[in-house]
Every structure is written in structure tokens, then in C-alpha cells.
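Checked the freezer inventory, then went back to the computational side. Two predictions to log before the end of the day. The first one is the construct we discussed on Monday; recording sequence and C-alpha cells without edits.
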Amino acid sequence: KNSLFPNGSLQERTDNFLNYYQQHPDFIKRLLDHFDPFDLRFNVLYL
């Protein structure tokens, strides 16, 4: 739970997407393939 909500906050408040992009060059494409901006539920993307 702490990896998804570090310090009790949302992960995107503490982690920068550039860290993931550097490790996974296809990160943006994978986000676009799996993310629906009209679906308000949380999404989990395994890298």
C-alpha cells in the first residue's frame, strides 16, 4: 500500500513520470494504450 500511496499521499504527488520514462522508453505509448481519461477509477500499469 505504501508503494501506491507513499506517505499517505497519491503516488503522482511524489514520483515524477520522467523516472519511469527513462527506464521504459515506451512508457508514454503504454499509458496512452491503457488509459481512458473518462474512466475515473484508479489504474495500475505494470512495467
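The second is the one RB wanted added to the comparison set:
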Amino acid sequence: MGAAGRPVEVVTEDQYKVVIPAGDQSRYQPILALRINGRPLEEMGFSQWMMYPLNDFRELQTADIDAKLAWRVKALVVR
């Protein structure tokens, strides 16, 4: 994201906002997904999606992480 050490606010098309803490960036390396299995998400009826590596970190397998898995992302704001 080019925001090393700084939190990033994710803003969606419906104005939902969530902050990705700087610590999450270094530990989990969340991504803004544009494709799944090489296929553009738009072709499948989806749009950009902020995604964490849920299967790689057991501590992410909670309901709390759902708030950070934003879809229809329109902006990333470095704080």
C-alpha cells in the first residue's frame, strides 16, 4: 500500500469506513484483491475487496475481523 508504519482508512462505495492499523499491515499484509484465481472480480459480479490471509493466521478466524474485510472499495486513505 505504500503506507509502511501508518494506518490506512478503507472507504467503500457506500461510505463504510474501517481503519487498517499499521500493525496489521506488517504482521498480516492484507491486500486489495482485484482478482480471484486469475479472473477479475468484476467479471464475477464483485468489486475490489480488502482481504486478510484468514487461513494463515488462526487468530484472524474470529467475527471481529469481518469488519475489516471491506468490499466495493473506492479509496485507501493513508493516515
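For RB: Residues 8-78 form one domain. The two ends are 12 Å apart (CA to CA). Let me know if you want it refolded.
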